[in-house]
Specification:
Layout lengths: L7 E6 L9 H16 L3 E3 L7 E8 L2 E8 L4 E8 L4 H20 L2 H26 L3 E3 L1 H15 L4
Parallel strand pairs: 1-3
Antiparallel strand pairs: 2-6, 3-4, 4-5
Helix pairs in contact: 1-4, 2-3, 3-4
Length: about 160
Amino acid sequence: MTDADHYITELHIDPQSLPVTSPEMEHERRVAIFDLLEENEFKPLDSPSGPYVVNIVLNDDRLILNVMRTNGAARGDYSLSVKPFRRIIKDYFMICEAYHDAIRTATSAQIEAIDMGRRGLHNEGSRLLSDSLRNTIEVDFNTSRRFFTLICALHRRPK
């Protein structure tokens, strides 16, 4: 991306569309949002300029991104099916759990191997996200990774 003003400055999630949560899950969501806002490249393809405010709504199996400029000018709603992400999210949660379990008992080589698998799944989810958005919103790889982290945080269920 060449335009320096194509980035998200604010991101809000509709609390009515969120699943039941715990304090830990709320913390994960806040961290994911903070990381995304800290550094991102985000450009709706039909938008000549930013920066942007994004409001997210989870509606059944869709993630709806309501995008507007910081001056209030609407840039549109973008809908993304989360169905293709289900397997990756499920596998990602399983490997994250295995990683946390391994920290207590496994060797450093075992932990590193699990972490490599975790990063691989995270990259796969990030590529799927970029591919899903490619006709509507341009994001760089790091922004895609941060968005995938947020999607995972939005779909985590209490134990």
